[in-house]
Amino acid sequence: MRHLIIAAVVAPLCLAGAAGAQETATPKAAPVAATQPTPPPISPGRRKYQSIFPVNTPKEVLDPLKAEEGVWTAQVELYVGNTAKQPIRKTGVQTNRLVSKGNAIINAFKYDDGSYEGTGMWGWDAYTNRYTGTWIDSDTHLVRHDVGYYDADTKVFRWEADTMQPDGVTTRMRIRQEFQGDVRLFQIDVMDAKTGEFKKLIMMRFTRREA
User: Fold this and answer.
1) What SS3 string covers 129-165?
2) How many CA within 13 A on the CB side of residue 83?
3) What is d(CA 207, CA 94) in angstroms, rounded to the nearest whole number?
4) Angle 183-206-106 from CA coordinates, rounded to 5°
5) What is the pTM of this model?
6) Which range, of 47-51, 64-68, 160-164, 192-196, averages the lowest pLDDT?
7) DSSP states of 7-60 as a string?
8) CB neighbours of 4 closer than 8 A, spacing ≥ 6?
9) Residue 83 carries which DSSP code?
10) How far apart are the C-alpha atoms of 111 and 121, rounded to whole Å?
11) Which pLDDT band holds residue 57 (cuts at 50, 70, 90)?
12) Residue 178: which residues within 8 A CB-CB, separation 6 or more?
C-alpha cells in the first residue's frame, strides 16, 4: 500500500516536471526563405515572344512584309567581272505577293532582258524570334537560307546568309534594305574568304508601280 501511495505522489511530479521542461525549451527558428533576385526589365528591342502561337506574336512583325508587297521596277548595278567595266547596269521587275493569310511573302524577280530570274519566300519565324527566308535563282542549283532583323525606327532590314565563291569556298553574304515608302534601296555585300573584307556585289533601287 505504501508503494502505491509513493507512486501516486511521484507520477504527478514527473509529469509536472516534463511539462515545465517543455515550456522552458527554446523554440527552433523557422528557416528563412531565400530571396530571388528580381530580373531586369526586358526592353521592347530585346523582348522574346517564346511561343509559336499567334496570340503571343505582335502584329507589327508583319509590317515589313506589307511594305514589300506589290510590283516594283528595279534599277540594278552589278559589281562583277572586269572592274574597269563596273557597274553593269540592268533593269528588272519584282512582283511580291503576300501568302498564308499575310504571314509570308513570295518575291519573284527577273531582269527585263531575261538573263536572270530568282524566287524567294520569307516571313517571321516565332520559333527563333527573327525573320527567315529562302532564295533560289537561275544562276545556280543552290538554296540560300537567310536570317533577317528589322529596325522599325529606321525602317532598315538586315539579312545574313552563307554563300559560295566562284572557287567553291563558302563565305558570308549580308543584305541591307531600306524602306522609303514607294522606294526601296537594296544592297548585297559578299565577304572575300581570304581577306575577310566585304565587297559590294549588287545595288538595286526599287520603285513601286502604280496599281
Assistant:
1) CEEEEEEEECCCCCCEEEEEEEECCCCEEEEEEEEEC
2) 2
3) 10
4) 110
5) 0.73
6) 47-51
7) HHHHHHHHHHHHHHHHHHSPPPPPPPPPPPPPPPPPPTTT-----SSGGGS-GG
8) none
9) G
10) 18
11) confident
12) 154, 155, 156, 157, 184, 185
Instruction: Please give the grid coordinates belonging to residue 14.
Output: 514527473
Please say whether the beta carbons of 90 and 111 come within 8 A: yes
Q: Which three cell numbers stand for residue 169?
A: 569556298
Q: Tell me, what DSSP letter sits at residue 195?
A: T
pLDDT in the model for residue 177:
98
- 3-state SS class at 89: strand
Contacts of residue 58, defined as CB under 8 A and 6 or more positions apart, other chains included, come to 49
Type of residue found at 59: K
Q: How far apart are CA 172 and CA 193, in angstroms?
A: 8
